[in-house]
Amino acid sequence: MSIYSMWGALEIGLIFGLVALGVLISFRVLNFPDLTVDGSFPLGGATAAILIHHGMDPFMATGAATLAAGFAGMVTGWLNVRLKIMDLLASILMMIALYSINLRVMDAPNVPLITDPTVFTVLQPPGIEDYVARPLILLALVVGAKLLLDWFFATQVGLAMRSTGSNPRMARAQGIRTDNMVLLGMAISNALVGLGGALFAQSQGGADISMGIGTIVIGLAAVIIGESILPSRRLMLATLAVVIGAVLYRFFIALALNADFVGLKAQDLNLVTAVLVTVALVIPLAKQRLRKKRA
Q: Which spans of this chain does the record mark as coiled coil (predicted)?
């Protein structure tokens, strides 16, 4: 694998680290199976791309994309807590609706950003190649997002949200408004995913309507791989684990697709993803069996 492929894998892995943080909130903290991710990721990319293409400052466009995706997540939560639609079905309905919304936002199947300024071109330090600068910028953003989440979940509101996902009946008995916690948590989760989508569009030179396909699988793969490598009940370590899992996932993908002796091609990406997720799911079970045999 070439040095360019390694830097590229790190870059995409860090972007999906933001997605993994969002998936961690919905699936692990709130215990909410959220498939909105497949729609909110391209929503973030589409919103940022179209706004930058029409002359808006890239940072403001990225912020608007994050808010748009967060609002989509809040609507999913609203369908569940207010209209009493099953959580999984509510997220599927929102994911389907977002496909049409994303087409409306872009007014086309894709929006190129070849010559437009992005957060990476604005922040790129002089004398550093862009393929090196982008991962460094993303690393700073991901570390900042991780630390902010760690701080938030240590606050009273964050602890109330964790209690809502762990035991909603007990949380309500303690006076916590669990419906509001679900709405807030889904908004934060999808906002992180939308931020990842906005940065992905700017990194890859444009947004495409199909860029969100399989995003939830990648996010879950990152969470599962991270938890297998660094198992911990402490949320501070869990957020670190999913970011590491996202980066390792992209390195595994890049290694598999660039290894000549394996013979895989770009069209085998979904197959490689399925195999990696399967292995990540089997590893914890294998560890438990070994422990039982030793005991």
A: none
Q: Among 200, 274, 249, 247, which residue's Cα sits nearest to residue 44?
A: 200
Reference 16, options 136, 112, 142; nearest CA is 142
Residue appearing with tokens 């900042």 = 144
Can you give the pLDDT at residue 262? 58
Please tell me the pTM assigned to this model.
Answer: 0.92
- Contact partners, residue 247, CB within 8 Å, separation at least 6: 9, 10, 13, 14, 17
SS3 state at 260: coil
DSSP code at position 125: P
| % residues pLDDT > 70 (the chain) | 95
Helical packing angle, 130-152 and 3-23, nearest 10°: 20
Q: Is residue 61 within 8 Å of residue 52, measured between CB atoms?
A: yes
Of the given ranges (42-51, 110-119, 153-162, 252-261), which has the lowest mean pLDDT? 252-261
